[in-house]
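User: what does the whole thing look like in 3D?
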Amino acid sequence: KAGVTQTPRYLIKTRGQQVTLSCSPISGHRSVSWYQQTPGQGLQFLFEYFSETQRNKGNFPGRFSGRQFSNSRSEMNVSTLELGDSALYLCASSLVTLQGGSYEQYFGPGTRLTVT
Amino acid sequence: GQQLNQSPQSMFIQEGEDVSMNCTSSSIFNTWLWYKQEPGEGPVLLIALYKAGELTSNGRLTAQFGITRKDSFLNISASIPSDVGIYFCAGQLVQGAGTALIFGKGTTLSVSS
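Assistant: Here's the predicted 3D structure for the full assembly of 229 residues, as C-alpha cells:
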C-alpha cells in the first residue's frame, strides 16, 4: 500500500510570492492534516480536513489556507510569503476521524520550502 | 502554540544500552503517539496508545500511557546504530469536530558502536 505522498519535495520561493503544496493520502484515508516543522518551533498543527471540510485549524495567520478534494487529496497554499515561512511542511493522513475518536496519523516525507 | 514537555533533549549512548525518554503535559490527551524522524524524511509512527495505563510494545520499543493521561514514556532496549534519529511524542487533542496532534520538541538519539 503506497504511503502519503507530497509534491514537490523541495521548493524555493521569493518573499511576497505564493506557493501551493500538494498531498495525496494513503488510499482509503479520508482525513488529511498539515503541520509546519521548524527548528525553533518544532512541529506545529496547521489544519485538518475531512470530507472536503476544514474541521480544525491551528494558530496560523490567514495567509495559510488549504482545501481537500473529493478524492481526499489536499492542497495547502501560503500567500505573500515571508522569510519565516521557510520550513518543512508535512502532511499526515488517517483512516477516519470521528468526534471523540482517535486514529493514528501517518506522515508523508514533507515539502521543504525555502523563502529568500 | 501548545506543546508537550519532552525530555531529555538529546542522548548519546553506546550500542546495546537501554534508552528511556518521556513526555509530560498540563493537558489530558485521549491518545499518545510516538514517532521517529530521520533526516530528510517525515515522522514514522512507532507506537500508538489509547488507554490510560496502557503498556504497548513494538519489538525493542515499549511505551506507556500515564494513568493521569498527562504523560507517556518510551523505552528502547538494547539499542543499535539504526535507532539513531529524533523521537517525538505527540498527544492527540479533540477540538470541536476535528482533532490535532500536539508534539514535543523531540529527543535526539545518537548511538555509538
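In plain terms: Chain B touches chain A at residues 1, 3, 30-31, 33, 35, 40-45, 48, 50, 88, 90, 92, 94-106 (CB under 8 Å). Chain B has a mean pLDDT of 93.
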